[in-house]
Amino acid sequence: MLPRCAISVCHVFVLVLCLSSAEDFDWTKNDHGSFYYGTFPAGFSWGAGSSAYQTEGAWDKDGKGLSIWDVFSHKKGKIQQNDTGDSSCEGYHKIKDDVGLMKDLKLNHYRFSISWPRLIPTGIKSDHINEKGIQYYNELIDHLLENKITPIVTLYHWDLPQFLQERYGGWQNISMVNHFNEFANLCFERFGNRIKYWMTFNNPWSVAVEGYETGEHAPGLRLRGTGAYKVAHHIIKAHAKVWHTYDTQWRAKQKGMVGISLSGDWGEPVDITNQKDIEAAERYVQFYLGWFATPIFHGDYPQVMKDFIGRKSVQQGFGTSRLPSFSPQEKSYIKGTCDFLGVGHFTTRYITQKNHPSARSSSSYFTDRDLAELVDPRWPDPGSEWLYSVPWGFRRLLNFVKSQYGNPMIYVTENGVSEKMLCTELCDDWRIQYFKDYTNEMLKAIKDGVNVKGYTAWSLLDKFEWDEGYSERFGLYYVDFRNKNKPRYPKASVQFYKRIISSNGFPNQREVENWRRKAVETCSTSNQLLAAEEQRSTAANILRLIHDPLTSHMEMVTEIVVPTVCTLSILLSAVFLMFLLRRRN
Ligand code: NOJ
């Protein structure tokens, strides 16, 4: 995800590009190929995903501790409309309902995350373990397995216990490595008999850059140029430690796998004949996915990051590079700590070389890369400002992973598209198009030889979208957040995704077109249901409005009129008393 400042820079560049070089720039020179009809390998796993803070709600129930997101979202002005995840989709109370939806979709797997402060309220295992939290995840896991849905678990999807943030500065502090390892070990101990797919972190890029560099995400720190690199360094060490813990203590008995979920946009050179653009695009991907993947697969940061950040740090008068370094022992400890790679991917950028000034005051992750990001104004962008639909970028990213990291086993952990809050349209034709084209590019990548074993649509439900609150909806299922019960309604994409799953791919053009037509037809029933519910809640709101003047009048009587009358009476009595006393004298 791009921070807002970068997005505006992007927009300016788009504009400049449109004005200055619309004629001489050939957008079609990337041959993106046609649709490929065919099926996925047998046993390919289809799923959908969620994360704890985004869906569970129950933020203060049953002994859960506070997370940095609980605290951050309660601060005014941090989240769109000051939304919070306090109740979100109420997933904590809806295990059966939600597993029912997954069953209906015929999912093979469900990806969710475990809330660290729900299990360990302070984050420190020796303080206290919350058995009610353990019980919740036990129920979820058991219910999934009873329904033949494989659980894929993320240990850290951004909700650090607040206590660890306050006491140690969160991921800036190396002590997080041990605390996280203890939490992970507890999860292996309690759930590992049933969980075979573990992921240590979800999208650590976001944790580092948005949490500690730009401050758009919790904990909201703006430690530009240094914070993100330090945090990433500790996260990579924490990941490696947890992998070794599993490897030495649990693997033989539990026979599971431990990976990490990394996000990455694809970066395509603006001019594929220009060496500088080619290198800038490569840098874009190395600073994104490569920042974490290269140490984990090869033991150290990408050379280009070491070169660029090192050189700039010297120019800026720093004694050493702002990018920390690993010792030889650390390198060999970290290298190879990945049984499978989770890939989260949503969008693509065009990249061109752009030198940024090297002033110390402007040092940042973004200026370190010396590049500019552009988008093609013709790319569809139905929802989030940063999310353009560019399916061919997905195939390129997957091939990049194959060639850079020795063709690892891949699970796509996130892929999907959003729409804006006010859109109560369940006939999400654009999402059908997005899933159709992106999964097709993934199929092409598999034909290219990329070892993709599973795909996770993001997300099962509409949910709390971090700093965007509920204003962006990624769900296959629509959630009515205005209703206390948070009812779910299937969007048309549910029907379409279901067909891809049951055919394990795309049989032929006629059939796939039929799926689409039928999906859009059936969604009109759900649309009617939702419209009826909307009418009902609008009527309820009108009643409340009629009722409101009465209530507010009563409030005025009790809160303003009564105290004023009392005070006046006391004053008048005092004046009257004084008057009487004077007369007596
Ligand atoms: C990646 C994050 O992991 C996920 O939580 C979020 O919903 C998506 N990006 C969409 O922004």
UniProtKB/TrEMBL annotation:
Keywords: Glycosidase, Hydrolase, Membrane, Signal, Transmembrane, Transmembrane helix
Species assigned in the record: Champsocephalus esox
InterPro entries: GH (IPR017853), GH_1_N_CS (IPR033132), Glyco_hydro_1 (IPR001360), Glyco_hydro_1_AS (IPR018120)
GO molecular function: beta-glucosidase activity; galactosylceramidase activity; glucosylceramidase activity
Signal sequence coordinates: 1-22
Stated name of the protein: Cytosolic beta-glucosidase
Enzyme Commission identifier(s): 3.2.1.21, 3.2.1.45, 3.2.1.46
Residue positions of the active site: 414 (nucleophile)
Cited Gene3D superfamilies: Glycosidases
Gene Ontology biological process: carbohydrate catabolic process
SUPFAM superfamilies linked: (Trans)glycosidases
Membrane-traversing stretches: 560-581
Catalytic activity as recorded in UniProt: a beta-D-glucosyl-(1<->1')-N-acylsphing-4-enine + H2O = an N-acylsphing-4-enine + D-glucose; beta-D-glucosyl-(1<->1)-sphing-4-enine + H2O = sphing-4-enine + D-glucose; a beta-D-xylosyl-(1<->1')-N-acylsphing-4-enine + cholesterol = cholesteryl 3-beta-D-xyloside + an N-acylsphing-4-enine; beta-D-galactosyl-(1<->1)-sphing-4-enine + H2O = sphing-4-enine + D-galactose
Coiled coil (UniProt feature): none
Family as reported in the entry's similarity comment: Belongs to the glycosyl hydrolase 1 family. Klotho subfamily.
Classification via Pfam families: Glyco_hydro_1 (PF00232)
Keyword Transmembrane included in the entry's annotation: yes
Superkingdom of source: Eukaryota
